[in-house]
Amino acid sequence: MIRTLAAGLLCLASIASAQTSAAADADSGEFARALQEFQSGNYASAVSSFADVEATSPGTTDALLYEARGLIHLQEFLRAEMTLRSYIRGHRDSSEALYLLGFVLHRRNRPTESLETYTHAASIAPPTSDDLKVVGLNYVLLDDYTDAIKWLKKSVELDGANKDAWYYLGRAYYSKAQLPEARAAFEKVLALHPQDTKAQTNIGLILETSGQTGAAIEAYRAARREIGARRPNSRPQSLENVPEARLLRNAT
Questions:
Q1: CA-wise closest residue to 71 among 99, 90, 48
Q2: pLDDT per position as a tens digit, 210-251
Q3: Cβ(150)–Cβ(127) below 8 Å
Q4: What is d(CA 32, CA 26) in angstroms, rounded to the nearest whole number?
Q5: What is the pTM of this model?
Q6: Residue 64's closest CA among 40, 94, 39, 42?
Q7: Within 10 A of 166 (CB to CB), how many other CB atoms are there?
Q8: Is 108 helix (H, G, I), strand (E, B) or coil?
Q9: Helical residues (DSSP H) of the chain, grouped into ranges
Q10: Which of residues 17 and 172 earns the better pLDDT score?
Q11: What angle in degrees, to the nearest 10, is found between the helix axes of 63-73 and 2-39?
């Protein structure tokens, strides 16, 4: 009888193990399909699929993390925050999730909480250039341009090809009336991406502020030519909104 009971228990254990394995295989397949949707840029579908994976097997995959990534791409930052917090409750040392949460809090205009979250993440793993860029932008939101410049400089030191970080560094210098430094940052943007109209326009503003009217007009015109080249069928911009037109009127 003991042998029969033991054999029966072993059989039940084998069945349970097989069922668990089958469920894990199914979850793996569903996760792989959701990941393929995400990598193909089908973010809305991927978000739904990752939510289904998590509902089926809570906490056994990174479905919540990828669901949050999809929501960020869809710019649904409130849902992304809630999803990331759910993931972090089970993965408290996930620097990846914490850095994402810091970004989401920044986009939700909560710079102080974002900075606290970035500090926590940085205690686990080093930040990237883009992470440091967002830290700098948090200080911009707090009207602290001195610290914004400090962290944006660290961002470009870590990755000298980070065009956006150079641009925001230029804007931070401009806000502090440090015009030579601002111009140098915008020129770095143009060296990396000669078609960047925002950098060209900001150089025009600096030249105009410095009283170099002719050079400012040329900078504005260069920006307008680039915009026109990108959108050849767009309607002409009203002269009232064209910076060089204003300068020409004032110069005559």
A1: 48
A2: 888 888 888 888 888 877 666 555 554 443 444 554 554 454
A3: no
A4: 10
A5: 0.80
A6: 94
A7: 28
A8: coil
A9: 2-39, 43-56, 63-73, 77-90, 95-107, 111-122, 129-141, 145-158, 163-175, 179-192, 197-209, 213-230, 243-251
A10: 172
A11: 20
Here the tokens at position 103 are: 């970004």
CB 114 within 8 A of CB 134: yes
CA angle, 157 as apex, 151 and 159 as ends, to 5°?
105
Long-range contacts of 59-68 (CB under 8 A, 24+ apart): 59/90, 60/24, 60/27, 61/27, 61/31, 62/87, 63/31, 63/34, 65/91, 65/94, 65/96, 65/97, 65/100, 66/34, 66/35, 66/38, 68/97, 68/100, 68/104
The amino acid sitting at 67 is E
135-155: average pLDDT: 98
Q: Which two tokens stand for residue 102?
A: 């810091």
Polymer length of the chain? 252
Q: Which two tokens stand for residue 221?
A: 């015109």
Strand, coil or helix: 194: coil
Structure tokens belonging to residue 124: 């686990």
